[in-house]
Design goal:
The protein contains 20 helices and ten strands. By secondary structure, it is mainly alpha-helical. Strands 1-5 form a two-stranded antiparallel sheet. A two-stranded antiparallel ribbon has the order 2-3. α9 packs across α15 and α15 runs antiparallel to α17. It is globular, with a radius of gyration of 22 Å. It is found in: Cell outer membrane. Belongs to the SusD family. InterPro entries: SusD-like_N, SusD_RagB_dom, TPR-like_helical_dom_sf.
Length: about 475
């Protein structure tokens, strides 16, 4: 039964016709006559996931394009140029153009669902849920677009003109917030199957958006709603292996899983990210390209307390070759790989069953801690309580018992925010969040952090990806002058 949602989504895509026809043919199956019943409505919504889960988007490429920018990882091979922070080369421009294409494919499918489902005769509560789910997913995609490209075309209908100008960032965020308001109101409190968003996922997502926009009180209050509901809790950890209850290939969900993208070891639907974070032929994943790696000289790595169980869980410098049994030591200048996601039973590149968390309860706690402190001009007891839950779990001690050896205390507002951001870096390592965390600190702070960590000077043009050439060539309201700087 594991990962039901991805199977439905994969099947559903074959049922989702995207061609724009003016007439309704009666002798063939088309978009105009397909959506007839509740099953078709579910297919329309589930088809959105297929585009989001693709290898070229959340399935791998989007994560690598984020992680190679962080202050704890470098890109390797064709991703190495990202870690020079001078803008993208042709290969990586092609990759982000692929991400753009998958984003708008997902948006098109969301728009089709939002247009077709209302006319279907079905249970009204189920209909409302599916429409809210489509809005949640559309908001997720626009959130990636606006943070990756800045102003982008807003498309909210499936058959409108292709000529759509780039909308201001504020307008894109308005659409995201409008969609999430509907999702928050109409999504259920619990998912029908693991992997479906709930009202709590919408609230956590809203808190994250408010955090990105520096709307501290709104972020604080929305995260607090999730915390006060007591629906979620951190998975207790006493040993390094206990983290597998969260990230393991056989874990269906957990007490802290608010929303995640589901993958499966069966049917070629695995999480291929593992292929790129591991060395070749490890016990963690059959192939391996070592596409991103960490160095001891990076401050986040150098200063990581060995007593923090996440360090051993995340990093390895040696591994056992699954074929020869030999112990392999990683190169001196590329000494650490990341092993948060591993599937010892995987037999192929596309057969790893791990899921990708999008929002966990740790998100709610750390959003609350940062936002509450920022809103109040400094940390109060409740902000410390939130971040210290995450820290205690990381050190394998009781989450709810104050621990002088682990807890943060007595910090200024800036020192507390820095500590929370560091906690986010460790807690969400290689989950695709750190680069966006650095970007929301502002250009000067981001540049200073990367310079201190890696000795690299970040070009401002590196902060936004280029608008794809095919969009410029085929969109009459975007021309070469509208391209992001540097491209």
């Amino acid at each position: 039964m594991k990962k039901i949602l991805f199977i439905i989504a994969t099947l559903a895509v074959f049922s989702s016709c995207e061609t724009a026809l003016e007439e309704v043919p009666v002798d063939r199956l088309t978009e105009e006559n397909f959506y007839q019943n509740a099953t078709d409505a579910r297919s329309a919504t589930y088809a959105i996931y297929q585009a989001i889960r693709e290898f070229g988007y959340y399935g791998t490429v989007h994560l690598l394009e984020q992680e190679a920018n962080t202050d704890y990882a470098n890109g390797r091979g064709s991703y190495a140029i990202i870690s020079e922070y001078q803008g993208l080369d042709g290969t990586n421009i092609g990759r982000v153009e692929g991400i753009w294409a998958f984003c708008y494919r997902a948006i098109l499918r969301a728009n089709i669902a939002l247009e077709r489902i209302p006319a279907i005769a079905m249970n009204e509560n189920d209909k409302k849920t599916l429409l809210a789910e489509a809005r949640f997913l559309r908001a997720l995609v626009y959130y990636d677009l606006v943070r990756g490209w800045g102003p982008v075309p807003i498309r909210t209908v499936s058959k409108g003109s292709n000529d759509v100008a780039r909308s201001p960032v504020a307008d894109v965020y308005k659409l995201i917030l409008d969609d999430l308001a509907v999702a928050e109101a109409d999504l259920p409190a619990a998912p029908v199957v693991a992997g479906q968003p709930t009202k709590w996922a919408a609230k956590t997502f809203l808190a994250d958006v408010y955090l990105t926009r520096g709307e501290w009180a709104l972020a604080r209050d929305k995260a607090k709603e999730v915390m006060d509901a007591k629906v979620y809790s951190l998975v207790p950890v006493q040993t390094v292996a206990d983290f597998e209850k969260i990230y393991g290939a056989t874990a269906i969900t957990s007490s802290e899983d608010i929303f995640s993208l589901k993958y499966s070891s069966a049917g070629g639907q695995g999480f291929q990210y593992l292929l790129y974070i591991h060395a070749e032929n490890t016990q963690y994943s059959p192939p391996g390209f070592r596409t991103i790696y960490a160095r001891q000289t990076f401050p986040l790595i150098a200063n990581w307390d060995a007593k923090d169980l996440r360090k051993e869980f995340n990093l390895y410098g040696q591994y056992v070759n699954r074929t020869t049994g030999q112990t392999i030591t990683l190169p001196v200048n590329e000494p650490y790989q990341f092993r948060k996601f591993k599937d010892p039973s995987s037999v192929a590149a596309n057969a790893s069953g791990n899921d990708l968390p999008i929002f966990r309860y740790a998100d709610a706690l750390l959003i609350y801690a940062e936002a509450a402190s920022q809103a109040a001009g400094g940390p109060a007891a409740d902000a410390y309580a939130a971040v210290n839950q995450v820290r205690r779990r990381a050190y394998g001690v009781d989450i709810n018992t104050p621990n002088a050896a682990v807890d943060l205390v007595g910090l200024s507002a800036q020192a507390f925010r820095d500590a929370v951001l560091q906690e986010r870096a460790y807690e969400f390592m290689i989950e695709g969040k750190r680069w966006n965390d650095l970007k929301r600190l502002g250009v000067d702070r981001l540049k200073a952090i990367i310079l201190a960590a890696k000795g690299k000077t970040v070009k401002e043009s590196h902060l936004l990806w280029p608008i794809p050439k095919v969009e410029i060539d085929n969109n009459g309201l975007i021309n070469a002058e509208d391209q992001n700087p540097g491209y």
